[in-house]
Write a structure and sequence with these properties.
With 83 residues, the protein is an all-alpha fold. It has three helices and no strands. It has one domain.
Amino acid sequence: MSVTAPDGLGLLGAAVILLAYALNQLDRLASSDWRFPAVNLAGSVMIMVSLLYAFNLPSVVIEIFWMAISLFGMVRALRRQAA
């Protein structure tokens, strides 16, 4: 079994999201820190790119919501930081 470039990117995106979650659970990256949703957004974008090559509607839907929630979290965190 060979891994294509889009699959590799999707796997990297999944690893990035899981790393952010693990760091959050280890109290190394707070969910209120703008970097937490930024990392989640980056991972989700990588997964979404891989889905352009191997379309899967349920996965696309969850990634769209994941990106939207991550953007909301980033904006919220950055507004708090500016205040």
